[in-house]
Structure formats: C-alpha cells, structure tokens
Amino acid sequence: MGKINFKPGTMLNPVPAVMVSCGNEEKHDIITVAWTGIVNSEPPMTYVSVRKERFSHGIIKENGEFTINITTEDLAFATDFCGVRSGRDVDKFKEMKLTPQPGEKVACPSIKESPVNLECKVREIHEYGSHDMFVADIVNVRVDEKLMDEKGRIRLDLAGLVAYNHGEYFALKRTPLGKFGYSVMKAKTKKRIAGERRQNARNKKNRKNKR
Amino acid sequence: MGKINFKPGTMLNPVPAVMVSCGNEEKHDIITVAWTGIVNSEPPMTYVSVRKERFSHGIIKENGEFTINITTEDLAFATDFCGVRSGRDVDKFKEMKLTPQPGEKVACPSIKESPVNLECKVREIHEYGSHDMFVADIVNVRVDEKLMDEKGRIRLDLAGLVAYNHGEYFALKRTPLGKFGYSVMKAKTKKRIAGERRQNARNKKNRKNKR
Known about the structure:
The structure is a homodimer. Chain A is of the alpha+beta class. The first copy, chain A, has two domains: about 15-170, Pnp Oxidase, Chain A (Roll); about 180-210, no CATH class. Chain A has four helices and 14 strands. Chain A has helices spanning about 55-65, 75-85, 90-95, 185-210; strands spanning about 5, 15, 20-25, 30-35, 35-40, 45-50, 65-70, 100, 110, 115-125, 130-145, 160-165, 170, 180. In chain A, a hairpin with an 8-residue loop joins strand 8 (about 100) and strand 9 (about 110). The longest helix of chain A is centred in the last third of the chain and has 24 residues, at about 185-210. The termini of chain A are far apart. Chains A and B meet through strand 1, strand 2, strand 5, strand 6 and helix 2 of A and strand 1, strand 2, strand 5, strand 6 and helix 2 of B. Strand 13 of chain A pairs antiparallel with strand 14 of chain B, so a sheet runs across the interface.
C-alpha cells in the first residue's frame, strides 16, 4: 500500500480548539477557533485566523484585543456551540452559562470556567483570502489555582485538555508518551522522572482520600 | 479558589507536534515543530516558526519549501529526537530509520512513515524575535492509503495522532467527544452517527479477524 495525493487542503491535525473572547462590557462575543498557534517565543506571540464575515471579526478588529480561553472535556459542548452559532443571534456567555471575568491587561472578558486564559493585543492583521490572521502579543496569562501542584508547577496534564482532529473533538490520553528530550535522556534521569510520576499519583490519591 | 496571573508566556495547549522535512536530495534535514497551525482555508495556508539558529532554518529560507509530516504514537520517539538534535551533527533520516520519499510538488523529501504529508511553498517570512515565521501555501497533500475507509473517507481518528501539551507528548483518546456541530445537532442525526460508528467498529473487527 502506498500514498494517495489529494488536492491542497487544511489537513494539519490535531490542532487546538480554543474559545476566543472579545469586546468589552457592553458588546462582547465568544468564537471558537482551531486556526491558532504560537508564532514566537520571546516575546510570546500567537495568532487567531477568523473569517471576515464572523461577528467576532469586527469586534477584534475594532478593539485590537482578544483572549484565548483553553478548553477541556467539560467545556467541549460549549466550545462546539460557540463555533457554530453567531453572536449576532445569541449571547454565548448566557446561553452556555459561562462566566465573564474582567481581563487583567485587556478590556475583553475571560471565560472563568477555562483553566488558562491568554490575554492578547493585536500587532498585525494579514488578509489571506477566506480568513484574516490577527497576529498578537500575549500580554498576560492566567491559570486556575487548582492546576498548581505542591511544587508550584502548572499541571496541564491533569486539565483534561481537548484537541481538534479532522472535524472532531478529542480529549488527550492521561499518561504522556514522553517529555520533551526523552529520546536522548540518560537512563538515570528517566528513572527519576518515573519515580516522581509515581509519587505524584500517590499524592493525588491521598488528596482525594482526604476530601 | 481563583486564578493566578503569570508573566506572558507561550501557554497555548495542546498544540501540534509535527516533523518538518526540508532541503533536497543532496542536503536535507528534519526539524520537529510545535509552533505551527493553519492560517487560512481558501487557499489552504499554514506556517512554521523556526529559530534563526536552527540548521533547518537556513535550508527552508534557501529553498522556499518544506513538508509537514504529521506524527503518531509510533513516531513519538523520532519526533522528539528530531526536535532535540541538530542536522549539523546527524542525518536524522538515517539515525531514526525514517524513509525519505520524493515530494510531488516540492523538491524536499517527505517522511514515508508519516500518515499525512503537507507539501508547502513559502509565501512570506516574518521576523518576530526568537523565531522566524514561514507563512506558506499548502500545494499538495498526501495520505496513507491504509487510512482510507470503504466510503473513501480519511480516518484520522484511527491514526494514533499525537499532540504536544506543556512540554510533553500525548496521544489522543480513541473515541471523540463529538463532531463539529454536535451541540446543535438534531437527535435523529446523532442517532444515525452513533449507528455508523458502531458499524465501523464491527467492520474494523471483521477486517482484523480476516487477516
């Protein structure tokens, strides 16, 4: 068996599925976006690509700000809803029972139920055809306290995060395949990490039992 | 419990983890990239952000082409290796026993073991600081025949795809949380889809038994 050539298409998978909130107290909206990613590390920069005709497009263009809200298994239904319906017809915060939280460095509301919020300020807009790409600086990051462990580390592996794969939403498996650099890691380091993982699992179990 | 503010960082998760192949028959390389995504649907466009000092950076800039190779659980080790080691020191195709496949519309080799290859031609380079962003047109898509089902659909849900989450590689769970639009779907449509899913599972089982 070999490979089949297809006409060019957006076949990169999996990609993120995030809820992007925008606007201010009077006029706001949420749009679900899969066309997002990190474009630079120092300074931290991201983008969202949004169709010109979407309600959020005008709001982001007008205000030059948006907030990326990371999504979880619990938020999958709301994530889908915010990608299908238009803010012209429905207040998505109200309809999906999501709680707007005032931004720290931007005027647009964050989604309280999302474990991680990235507040962004638009730097450039590139028009590529169907979508406009809003390239932005990440100006503030907010993380749910529940995701911090005893050592002050952010435990996104426990957040139940969701990815978008070829038209469907998928949760990530609980146990990682490996850490960045594991392919060249010394046996000793690997052993230490495995030990820490077992200890973390025990801690988690103990915390649960104490409740 | 509330939320904690952190200094700006690249906290968007999960993101893709792809192997990007570049170059030609004489000089080629593979670099693993998490800073990638789709930026436009019509025409299909993507990007990869690569640090200026990486070996692949020069090759992509020189040739104006690259190929995105989607990664799987089986390719996780090679994916990590190609992100850590430099093509200046090691031939990553040889070292990881990956098979170069001639490109269809670009000179750079694809990775045969990857289930989906996206051949790309660079349109713009944006310099943002640590990384250069290569914005590109997707000019050809190649998919492994094994992923095509009886109805001619591409079954990426069966490919064992991998995402990158806060420094670790994770596989996706097998069963999706829902299809795009499921939050507004009629009960009848949902029932039909569930039936099809059961039938597909039975077909898969039968195929396995026949082997």
